[in-house]
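Quick one: structure for this chain?
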Amino acid sequence: MRLADEILITEEQLATRVGEMAAEITADTEPGSMLSVLAILDGAFIFCSDLIRRVDAPLRVGLLRMISITRGGDVDQLRFPADFPITGTDLLVVEDILDTGHTLAALSDRLMQQAPARLRTAVLLDKPAGREVEFKPDYVGFTIPDHWVVGYGLDSGGLYRNLPHITYVK
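Got it. Here's what it folds into:
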């Protein structure tokens, strides 16, 4: 496995856009209301960490380990954090990449069964070329070409999550 020489998204571009997304989320959140943020592990942990530190609203964070539906994940088997209420909350799901749409669509359906007051999604990367299921996130960091991307929390075989930028595997 070899990384491309090209950097798709620089560290500076990431920091700028994540800050802009945080400002959008803050503006769309009722002043003084509590925001519940559910980060999808493993890929979204760095993005979510940077994002929530820049959201100007009281919030709680839950971490949910989830395998992509296209790689055998099953939303019906998910165990949400016991101390993370969903019912009646202003819920924001934070995901690293929207590709086929299967995972976020199924997760959103499952979360809606628990009756949050509001459900929004924030994705760092949108890869429309891979879309098989229609899904429109509320907040998108970057739209990317059809590559297997790594860095800033995203991996290939468990590697490259630590890169401060986004590149891809050749």
